[in-house]
Design brief:
The complex is a heterodimer of chains A (114) and B (111). Chain A is built from no helices and 11 strands. By secondary structure, chain A is an all-beta fold. In chain A, the strands form 2 sheets. In chain A, strands 2, 4, 5, 9, 10 and 11 form a 6-stranded mixed sheet that branches. In chain A, strands 1-3-8-7-6 form a 5-stranded antiparallel sheet, with no helix packed on it. Chain B is mostly beta strands and 111 residues long. In chain B, the strands form 2 sheets. In chain B, strands 2, 4, 5, 6, 9, 10 and 11 form a 7-stranded mixed sheet that branches. Chain B has a 4-stranded antiparallel sheet with strand order 1-3-8-7, with no helix packed on it. In chain B, strand 7 and strand 8 form a beta hairpin.
């Protein structure tokens, strides 16, 4: 019940296209859903996050869509750029319990072709 | 990275030897975490701390111990390193507004 499942494992998108990464969770106690971006040799960095009281959050070219009833959330990257090529992780947390620990998806390796 | 440093950055050690990784923060945050990252597994929680001398296990804690004697330092010890513990280890702190900040990682190779 603690799992977060992420798909696809890898994704190739043309420059200017839309990148979509999906995640599903089981634990209904989760109440914080961040996305992290990781470049080779670096630690993950927070990209955008959402709480379950909203269905969508947008920051620049990055949008999280959240479906509470389906227990799914996704990251959309509009106008994808080669500089967006990185590994993306979704995560979920019950922020007020269990130490607020983050449970991560398996990661998606995104490659944006020029 | 935002007041969190890990040391060493790289280490090669022999099977059966103890190894200690250090995470140091300058931001006085209460919560600190150790994760390992392996291909196909994402990041998996090893141990976490919610205060000085207060720690708890994560999902992959076997073979690891931790200590936190000061707010700023969180140590991860591999009691007797095995090849299955070859990995990249990340420390994280939970800051304001729930966001985690990760260190740059320690790449550990057990030969």
């Amino acid at each position: 019940q603690q799992q977060v499942k992420q798909s696809p494992q890898s994704l190739i998108v043309q420059k200017g296209g839309i990148s979509i990464i999906n995640c599903a969770y089981e634990n209904t106690a989760f109440d914080y859903f961040p996305w992290y971006q990781q470049f080779p040799g670096k630690g993950p960095a927070l990209l955008i996050a959402i709480r379950p009281d909203v269905s969508e959050k947008k920051e620049g070219r990055f949008t999280i869509s959240f479906n509470k009833s389906a227990k799914q959330f996704s990251l959309h990257i509009m106008d994808s750029q080669p500089g967006d090529s990185a590994t993306y992780f979704c995560a979920a947390s019950d922020i007020y319990n269990q130490g607020g620990k983050l449970i991560f998806g398996q990661g998606t390796e995104l490659s944006v072709k020029p | 990275d935002a007041g969190i440093t890990q040391s060493p950055r790289h280490k090669v050690t022999e099977t059966g030897t103890p190894v200690t990784l250090r995470c140091h923060q300058t931001e006085n945050h209460r919560y600190m975490y150790w994760y390992r990252q392996d291909p196909g597994h994402g990041l998996r929680l090893i141990h976490y701390s919610y205060g000085v001398k207060d720690t708890d296990k994560g999902e992959v804690s076997d073979g690891y111990s931790v200590s936190r004697s000061k707010t700023e330092d969180f140590l991860l010890t591999l009691e007797s390193a095995t090849s299955s513990q070859t990995s990249v280890y990340f420390c994280a702190i939970k800051g304001q507004y729930y966001g985690y900040t990760f260190g740059s990682g320690t790449r550990l190779t057990v030969v």
